[in-house]
C-alpha cells in the first residue's frame, strides 16, 4: 500500500527559516530606526520647550523692572554694586541682568506696592550657573531652565536727548529701555548624528539703534555631538523710561 502522506523536505525548511529570519530582521531594523528617531525628536522637543519656558519667565519679569506705582523713593531696591533709591536695574552685565520692582504691599494680596523692594519676587538677577538659567533673589536661587550653555544681554539705551546706543557694559543704567537676550541651550544627551562643531552668530538690532561699533559675538561649541538651539528676543522695559 502506497503512503500518500506529504511533508517538508529539509531544504524547504531551511529556505522558510531563512525567509522568516530576513523578514524579522527587516522589521526589527525598521523598529530600531524609528525608536532612535523618536528618541532624538523627543530630546530636541524637550530642549526647545526648556529654552522657551526659561525665556518666557525672564521676559515676563523683566517687563516689570522699575515698576513703582506709588512713584516714591525706596530703601531696599539695591543689589550688587548699584545703589538704587527706587525700583530699577541694578545689574547690567554681559552675562547677568538684575532688577527690582515694587508690585506687592504689606499684604501679599496687595498689588499696589508698599515703598520697598523686599517682598518675594521684587528683586531678582538672572544668570547662568552650573549649566542652568538661574533666577537669584536675596534669599534663594532657583534654576529656571536646564542645560543652558551660554547667555548674552545686549542693552539698548536712550538718553535724555533721544540718542540711542547699544552696549553690553552700559554706564547709566537708567538709560536702558530695552534688552536683547540670547540664550543657547543643548539637549540633555549627545546625538551621534549631530555635528561635532556648531557655530552661532548673535544678531545685532541695526540700524534702528544706530551703533555700528557694537561687537558681533560668535558662539562656537566644539568636540561634542549635542544638538543646540539659539533663542533671541528683545524685551522692552516699559517702566524704565518713566525713571527719567
From TrEMBL:
Keywords: Membrane, Transmembrane, Transmembrane helix. One of its GO terms (biological process) is type IV pilus assembly. The chain crosses the membrane at residues 7-31. It comes from Desulfoprunum benzoelyticum. It comes from the Bacteria. Pfam families: N_methyl, PilW. This is Prepilin-type N-terminal cleavage/methylation domain-containing protein. SUPFAM superfamilies: Pili subunits.
Amino acid at each position: 500500500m502506497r503512503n500518500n502522506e506529504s511533508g517538508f523536505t529539509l531544504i524547504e525548511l531551511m529556505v522558510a527559516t531563512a525567509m522568516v529570519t530576513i523578514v524579522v530582521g527587516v522589521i526589527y531594523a525598521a523598529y530600531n530606526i524609528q525608536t532612535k528617531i523618536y528618541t532624538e525628536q523627543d530630546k530636541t522637543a524637550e530642549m526647545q520647550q526648556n529654552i522657551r519656558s526659561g525665556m518666557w519667565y525672564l521676559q515676563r519679569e523683566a517687563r516689570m523692572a522699575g515698576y513703582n506705582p506709588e512713584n516714591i523713593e525706596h530703601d531696599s531696591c539695591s543689589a550688587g554694586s548699584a545703589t538704587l533709591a527706587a525700583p530699577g536695574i541694578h545689574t547690567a552685565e554681559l552675562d547677568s541682568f538684575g532688577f527690582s520692582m515694587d508690585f506687592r504691599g504689606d499684604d501679599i494680596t496687595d498689588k499696589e506696592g508698599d515703598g520697598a523692594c523686599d517682598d518675594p519676587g521684587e528683586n531678582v538677577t538672572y544668570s547662568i550657573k552650573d549649566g542652568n538659567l538661574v533666577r537669584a533673589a536675596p534669599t534663594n536661587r532657583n534654576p529656571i531652565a536646564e542645560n543652558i550653555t551660554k547667555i548674552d544681554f545686549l542693552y539698548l539705551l536712550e538718553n535724555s536727548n533721544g540718542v540711542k546706543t547699544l552696549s553690553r557694559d552700559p554706564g547709566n543704567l537708567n538709560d536702558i529701555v530695552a534688552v536683547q537676550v540670547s540664550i543657547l541651550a543643548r539637549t540633555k544627551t549627545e546625538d551621534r548624528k549631530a555635528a561635532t562643531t556648531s557655530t552661532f552668530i548673535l544678531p545685532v538690532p541695526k540700524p534702528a539703534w544706530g551703533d555700528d561699533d557694537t561687537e558681533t559675538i560668535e558662539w562656537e561649541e566644539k568636540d561634542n555631538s549635542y544638538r543646540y538651539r539659539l533663542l533671541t528676543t528683545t524685551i522692552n522695559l516699559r517702566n524704565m523710561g518713566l525713571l527719567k
